[in-house]
């Protein structure tokens, strides 16, 4: 089983991909804050709880090539949806709140960095386990 086939790394990669796809959508909301009729959008978050539950039910160990391999959890593209609830709607029909979007951008960037740090830590642990000296 390779490094990228472990459920933990797959979930971290999915989280990184989610935050990467979410950032331009949030930036587009901010850019269209004054566009009449524009509706704020967001990216639908993957259900990480289901991913964890699925991996707790299945044994990951594969002791024979005849055993079923673990399937990848990564989805193709995350769905971009209209944001139904916002703080306010302007008279021109635009429902983008700059404060709300800036808060989401900040949280998204913070969670992306957290997932990236976790990915780097897991990478370092694997390198140590296979006998490679730590980098830097």
How would you explain this protein's 3D organization?
With 136 residues, the protein is mainly alpha-helical. The chain has one domain (3-129). The chain has 3 helices and 2 strands. It has helices at 7-31, 48-57, 98-129, and strands at residues 41-43, 80-82. Helix 1 packs antiparallel against helix 3 (98-129). The longest helix is centred in the C-terminal third of the chain and has 32 residues, at 98-129. The chain starts with 6 loop residues before the first helix and ends in a 7-residue tail after the last helix.
Concise description?
By secondary structure, this protein is mainly alpha-helical. 49% of the residues lie in helices and 4% in strands.
Layout of secondary structure:
Elements: H1 7-31, E1 41-43, H2 48-57, E2 80-82, H3 98-129
Antiparallel strand pairs: 1-2
Helix pairs in contact: 1-3
């Amino acid at each position: 089983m390779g490094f990228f086939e472990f459920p933990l790394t797959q979930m971290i990669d999915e989280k990184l991909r989610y935050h990467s796809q979410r950032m331009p959508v949030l930036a587009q909301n901010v850019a269209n804050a004054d566009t009449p009729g524009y509706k704020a959008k967001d990216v639908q978050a993957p259900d990480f709880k289901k991913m964890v539950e699925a991996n707790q039910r299945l044994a990951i160990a594969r002791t024979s090539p005849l055993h079923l391999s673990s399937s990848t959890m990564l989805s193709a593209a995350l769905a971009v949806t209209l944001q139904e609830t916002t703080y306010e709607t302007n008279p021109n029909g635009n429902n983008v709140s700059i404060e709300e979007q800036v808060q989401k951008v900040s949280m998204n960037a913070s969670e992306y960095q957290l997932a990236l740090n976790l990915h780097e830590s897991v990478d370092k642990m694997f390198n140590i386990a296979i006998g490679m000296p730590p980098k830097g």
